[in-house]
Amino acid sequence: MSNRPDLPPEIARRRTFAIISHPDAGKTTLTEKFLLFGGAIQMAGQVRAKGEARRTRSDFMQMEKDRGISVSASAMSFDYRNFRFNLVDTPGHSDFSEDTYRTLTAVDAAIMVIDGAKGVESQTQKLFEVCRLRDLPILTFCNKMDRESRDVFEIIDEIQENLAIDVTPASWPIGIGRDFVGCYDLLRDRLELMDRADRNKVAESIEINGLDDPKLAEHVPAHLLDKLREEVEMARELLPPLDAKAFLEGTMTPIWFGSAINSFGVKELMDGIGNFGPEPQPTSAEPRQIAPEEKKVSGFVFKVQANMDPKHRDRVAFVRMSSGHFERGMKLTHVRTKKPMAISNPVLFLASDRELAEEAWAGDIIGIPNHGQLRIGDTLTEGEALKVTGIPSFAPELLQGVRAGDPMKAKHLEKALFQFAEEGAAKVFKPAFGSGYVVGVVGALQFEVLASRIELEYGLPVRFDASQFTSARWVHGGKDAVEKFAAANKQHIATDHDGDTVYLTRLQWDIDRVERDYPDVTLSATKEMM
Ligand code: G4P
Known about the structure:
Elements: H1 9-12, E1 14-21, H2 27-37, H3 51-55, H4 57-65, H5 67-74, E2 75-80, E3 83-88, H6 98-105, E4 109-115, H7 122-133, E5 138-143, H8 152-163, E6 166-169, E7 171-174, E8 182-185, E9 190-193, E10 204-207, H9 215-219, H10 222-238, H11 244-248, E11 252-257, H12 266-276, E12 285-286, E13 298-306, E14 315-323, E15 325-327, E16 331-334, E17 339-342, E18 347-350, E19 353-356, E20 359-361, E21 365-370, E22 379-381, E23 387-388, E24 392-394, E25 398-404, H13 410-423, E26 427-431, E27 437-441, H14 445-458, E28 462-466, E29 471-477, H15 479-488, E30 493-495, E31 501-505, H16 508-517, E32 521-524, E33 526-528
Parallel strand pairs: 1-3, 1-4, 4-5, 5-11, 6-11
Antiparallel strand pairs: 2-3, 7-8, 8-9, 9-10, 12-23, 13-14, 13-22, 14-21, 15-20, 16-17, 16-22, 18-19, 24-33, 25-27, 25-28, 26-27, 26-30, 29-31, 29-32, 30-31
This protein binds guanosine-5',3'-tetraphosphate.
Protein name: Peptide chain release factor 3
Domain Tr-type G: 12-281
Main location: cytoplasm
């Protein structure tokens, strides 16, 4: 079963992945079918609102309000065959955010869902680029084959061209749109026939002895069969065969064709994740990498959700386990503060439920309720001073000033802003000059979400207004050089919630000038989370 027989079986059977797609391609539907076949839900439609409804603003706010739901949906664990799948959700709204990026640091692979009629869309492309930064293995699911879709070669070409990745067909669709009858499974020489009558029924699977097997003609109309033979012959000539190594290195993606809503092609995709992996991968850390099979437990925080319950300022830190076998009640060292932490009520996320995690293995995602000690990027170990790396913070692309509706509440506002900054929901900068704060985000919708959460969770109406600045850069360099630079550029200087120095400006010209005039400091659009 495992490609890594040297791993403890509990680790070898884990698959931790995310689904990336453009809105409407079918991510929610596919997730739901995964849960259905994983036995985590009884019936499709049980998980959460679908596509459009979920994305409308009011619904998004409602979801934000209903923190329980969005938390459960952030990570879902379920079993399939011998495998334990951990599916980590990428944020549902379309503003690309660093939240998405950080989520992808917690997974070992991604499924890219595309709509067969639309091909590679903008959001897919962006998310794909993020996966590429980490060389994540990608499995592709071409969805909605029950509808009119594009020519298969055209779709494959587009993926190869736009994403610069080799594509190998794992299945080949038979017929298009109304004529679509199913797929030929190229990896296992089987015919999979779609049942249009029952959307939750798994396809009928017929063993076939190659494309010349007379059995094919019993199930596939003659004109489609001719076309299938011709296309598969061409595909085998033109497209590379599956190369496990290239897949694991992220340079080749196998593609399955299917229809999530009709439960078609979903199991084959799940089998693909199971069979080809990858298993939990090593985690980059300083001063050394962490291997999943290490006996000692370690993990890192990739996401924090605050104010689950507005009455208590509690948060849940989402921790990806990097190594070992964790058991509830264990004492782990919080490396940043060097303090021990007893992890007594960690949670696991099972579809729409949360339950206490009695144990967890490398690859799993657990939630740790805490009072703010755990921040994004923090590492937990059994004592060794390891620091997980590669969880960056991006410079925000939109800046606005923020003020409390009631000036007497300025202190409260500060507290709220700092909490959101720690959660990673926004960047908060305190300019050296004047009063007030500058808030930075990646997508405009985040301002509204922030305003609504500050009001909801802290009872503080706030106003955002235009800021004189449009760009923020972290100032790196020796302590003296940074101080000297800050003193000479006070109008532009601010500190972030960690106390790090930031340069604010509205002109690229300023940034170029600093780079020219101050060779001892560098301005950077990212910083590693500490
Ligand atoms: P998303 O999370 O990626 O945004 O997509 P979602 O699953 O919500 O699917 C978007 C729309 O596409 C939904 O229709 C869904 O039913 C439909 N869909 C998903 N998979 C398939 C498929 O295999 N074939 C076809 N024909 N449609 C599919 P909707 O009208 O927005 O919602 P609903 O009324 O169906 O709930």
